[in-house]
Amino acid sequence: MRVIVCDDQPAVRAGLVLILRAHPDIEVVGEAGDGAAAVELGLRLRPDVVLMDLRMPRLDGVAATRELTRHGVTGVLALTTFDLDEYLFGALRAGAAGFLLKDASADELVAAVRTVARGEGIVAPAVTRRVLGAFAGPLTDSTPAAVPVGLLTTREREVLDCLGEGLSNAAIATRLGIAEATTKTHVSRILAKLGLQSRMQAAVAARRVSRLDM
């Protein structure tokens, strides 16, 4: 797995790199200290994962994430804190593939990077609950305005419902009695049909559909 680490604090960035390089299946191919550098590196190196601090100079992590996903670099793992919801929801709208708390342990960091590299972007249960819980109340500007679920097959709708519960591909496969590879295909088709960029956006869309069906 090829990873770029982006954080404006050199000591924090060095610590993240040290943790990741201790694992032979992870290669840190670049480092960036601001969002503009993160975009340049991401577009040039096309890594599997971009570990992105959301608060950075020149170009913040939300804007950098938006630029990367717009150009097809979809494996952005956002570093976030609970007291900065504007960044958290901004990164969600920008298409971040996953969210990791800044106080995560080394093991959680490595697991999150591996999860995003596999294409499964909902990686921190606490963050997932916070994001999805926010949409249990009144609709906000962060909520997708329209969810054309009529475009989905019956099976794809079932998979979407599972995404709304924050389930992994393996868990979805077990629940629905299908192969994990088939689940991945369904998720990719759901994102394409609904015009979404990440599993987290799909999870929010599923919550919106569930509320509108009530």
UniProtKB/TrEMBL annotation:
Keywords: DNA-binding, Phosphoprotein, Transcription, Transcription regulation. The lineage of its organism: Bacteria, Bacillati, Actinomycetota, Actinomycetes, Micromonosporales. Residues 145-210 form the HTH luxR-type domain. This is Response regulator. It holds the Pfam family GerE. The keyword DNA-binding applies. The modification 4-aspartylphosphate is found at residue 53. PANTHER family: TRANSCRIPTIONAL REGULATORY PROTEIN NARL-RELATED (PTHR43214:SF24), TWO-COMPONENT RESPONSE REGULATOR (PTHR43214).
